[in-house]
Amino acid sequence: MHSAFVLMNAELGKENHIVNEIKKISTVKEVYPVYGVYDVLMVIESDSMETLRETITSQIRKLDGIKSTLTMIIVKDQ
What we know:
Layout: E1 2-10, H1 15-22, E2 28-33, E3 40-46, H2 49-60, E4 66-73
Antiparallel strand pairs: 1-3, 1-4, 2-3
């Protein structure tokens, strides 16, 4: 299983809409609106790195109102 934390900056006032849209993506396991440098934090899991990449680039980053993302792939002990 491959996992990643994704931090996101959203356009002002679009945070709740983005969180609701992200909740619809099957590979997103957790999503939270947060205060601070970033506006949204999520955890993504998939069986392959390719699916993880596709989720981020084709589903999440294309949502209306997203300004930027920071992805951190989780390293798990073998």
